[in-house]
Amino acid sequence: MIEQIQSETRQTVDGMQEVTPKTDRALTKVHAVAGMLQSISGEAAESRSRAGEVAHATHEQAIAANDIARNVEQVSQMAEETTAIMHVNADSAAELDAMASDLRAQLAYFRVT
Which portions of the chain have biased composition (kind: Polar residues) (predicted)? Predict the structure, then answer.
């Protein structure tokens, strides 16, 4: 009976000695994987931060583009108003020219030769 217990104890010790290096290698691999996961997590956080910066910059560009579009619209309206004023001025100049012609004709009537 003692021999049997000693035999089983040796088998258990032998089994544990076999398993110990395997568990050490597994633990080393687990630590390596944990390091990789931590690195991936850090890189993901950095990517998320950069994506946030890009989103913010895109939002700012959209605001600037809207401002530019609004300013272009204002310039277009001002150009239309200027064109309308120029037409009014041209019409007024034509009327003044006609009035000047009439005045010349009336002055010619009173001219003594």
Answer: 1-14
**How many C-beta neighbours within 10 Å does residue 89 have?**
10
Q: Which residues of 11-29 are buried (b: 16+ CB within 10 A; e: fewer)?
A: eeeeeeeeeeeeeeeeeee
Amino acid at 91: D
pLDDT tens, residue by residue, 55-87: 999 999 999 999 999 999 999 999 999 999 999
- Scanning the structure block, which residue is given the tokens 């691999």? 29
C-alpha distances (whole Å) from 51 to each of 41, 44, 59, 68 are 15, 10, 12, 25
Closest-CA residue to 39 (of 50, 28, 31): 31
H helical segments located in the chain = 2-110
Tell me: pLDDT of 14 over 80. Answer: no
The rounded radius of gyration (Å) of the Cα atoms in the chain is 48
